[in-house]
Amino acid sequence: MKFYSRKLIKPGDLNASNTLFGGQLLKWIDEEAAIYAMSKLQSGQVVTKYISEIDFINSARQGDIVEIGLAFISVGRTSITFEAEVRNIITKKPIITIEKIVFVNVGKDEKPKPHGITEDQILNASFISTQ
Question: Most buried of 20, 26, 79, 91, CB within 10 angstroms?
Answer without folding.
Answer: 20
